[in-house]
Specification:
This protein is α+β, with helices and mostly antiparallel strands. The protein has one domain. It has two helices and three strands; from the N terminus they run αββαβ. The chain has a three-stranded mixed beta sheet, with no helix packed on it. The relative contact order is 0.22. The mean pLDDT is 87.
């Protein structure tokens, strides 16, 4: 896992590196630091997919236009993400 590898390299989370996951699986709360994630409504995505497939199958092949479906997601803030560190020394070029 990314967090384990970063910690093994001596990096601090979130002081040195922020880590954000996707899916908000139960493991996100079982690791330390707890993982900030994006939560998606999986059941609703499945429902929309089935409806869209049924709609496409009922249409003629030349009437199957692309459709954009927006799904609301939310960020679940935990301990693995923080503000960007500001380096007081200018970058060397």
């Amino acid at each position: 896992m990314v967090i384990s590898e970063l910690l093994s390299q001596g990096l601090r989370i979130p002081e040195d590196v922020s880590v954000i996951g996707f899916g908000d699986f139960s493991a996100a709360q079982q690791i330390l630091p707890h993982l900030t994630t994006v939560r998606t409504p999986g059941v609703e995505i499945g429902r929309m997919t089935v409806r869209r497939l049924a709609d496409l199958l009922s249409r003629k092949p030349d009437d199957r236009r692309p459709l954009r479906i927006q799904v609301p997601c939310s960020i679940i803030e935990r301990e693995s993400a923080g503000p960007a560190r500001i380096d007081p020394t200018p970058a060397m070029r």
